[in-house]
Amino acid sequence: MKRIDIRVKNLVKKYGTRDPEQIAKEMGLIIKYKSYNDYTKGFYINVKRNKFIVINSNLDECSKRIVLAHELGHAMLHSSKEVHFIRENTLFPRGKIENEANKFAAELLIDDDIFNNYPDYFTIEQIAAAENVHSELLKLKFNINI
Fold first, then answer.
1. Cα(100)–Cα(125) distance, integer angstroms
2. Is the pLDDT of residue 89 over 50?
3. Which one, of 65, 71, 73, 82, lies nearest residue 1 by Cα?
4. Which of 48, 63, 125, 135 could form a disulfide with 59 if both were Cys (CB 3.0 to 4.6 A apart)?
5. Is a pLDDT exceeding 90 seen at residue 12?
6. Which residues does the UniProt record annotate as the domain IrrE N-terminal-like (predicted)?
7. Other CB atoms within 10 Å distance of the CB of residue 1
């Protein structure tokens, strides 16, 4: 399998955007927003050649975008599997497949030169807030262990 960062760079180049919703739609994926009262945040499912990403409509906009990017990662990296769920108390589930989808989301949502846009004294949390992503994604993308 190609490195995730390279796959994302190729995807961004092909579609001319980092917007996971636009990319998913252009790839022919069907995006649905449904209300879930449990811990389901989203999932990717392939049913009879129809590929769906379902996002919990109760999530805030930032989380919806991250979950969509994560599920798009499953569609790109793990399409042979039938179903992928984010169904946990945390937005960032663990395990090899989930970590790969998280890395895909981080690579897609965050530009490589993001730190050039902010003064040196900005914290990870401040940059994440300004970019409308979770700080965990910034840490994952740039291998920051704080």
1. 23
2. no
3. 73
4. 63
5. yes
6. 25-136
7. 7
Non-local (6+) Cβ contacts of 91 within 8 A are: 41, 63, 66, 67, 134, 136
* CA proximity to 63, closest of 90, 37, 103: 90
Domains of the chain: 4-141 (1.10.10.2910)
Q: Which ranges in the chain belong to alpha helices (H)? A: 4-15, 20-26, 61-77, 96-109, 124-131, 135-141
C-alpha dihedral, 5 to 6 to 9 to 10, nearest 10°: -150
CA–CA separation, 134 and 46 (whole Å): 28
Residue linked to tokens 């945040």: 41
pLDDT of residue 102: 92
Give residue 16's region: left, alpha or beta (phi > 0; psi -120 to 50): left
Structure token digits, residue 84 = 């992928």
| pLDDT value for 29 | 97
Predicted confidence (pLDDT) at residue 92 exceeds the cutoff of 60:
no
Distance, CA of 125 to CA of 146 (rounded, Å): 11
Instruction: Report which of residues 84 and 134 the model is more confident about.
Output: 134
**Bridge pairing between strands 40-47 and 50-56:** antiparallel
What gap in Å lies between CA 52 and CA 32, rounded to an integer? 7
